[in-house]
Design goal:
Helix Hairpins, 4 helices, single chain
Length: about 90
C-alpha cells in the first residue's frame, strides 16, 4: 500500500489544475507506483502468487488507461510516458 503522503505527492505532481484528483494521468501515476512497490516485494517473496495476480490486474488496468489517453489526447500521453519512464 502507498502511504497518504506518497499519494498526495503523486497527485500534486500530475494535476492538470488545482482541483484535479482523478484524471487519467493521476490514475496511471498511482498505479505505476503500486506496480513498482509490488515488483520490489517480489524480489524477496518469489512464491507470493496471489499478489502476482494482483500485479497482473494492475498492469492491465494501467494499459487500458494508457490506451484511452493515447486515443483521446496523444500529447498528454507522450508527456506522461516520458515523465514516468514507461516504454521507449
Amino acid at each position: 500500500m502507498l502511504s497518504k503522503e506518497v499519494k498526495t505527492k503523486i497527485v500534486r505532481d500530475n494535476q492538470a489544475h488545482a482541483h484535479d484528483s482523478g484524471s487519467p494521468e493521476i490514475q496511471i501515476a498511482l498505479i505505476t507506483e503500486r506496480i513498482n512497490v509490488l515488483i520490489k516485494h517480489f524480489a524477496t517473496h518469489k512464491q507470493d502468487h496471489s499478489s502476482r495476480s494482483g500485479l497482473m490486474k494492475l498492469v492491465g488496468q494501467r494499459k487500458r488507461l494508457l490506451e484511452y489517453l493515447k486515443k483521446k489526447e496523444f500529447g498528454r500521453y507522450e508527456k506522461l510516458i516520458q515523465k514516468l519512464g514507461l516504454r521507449k
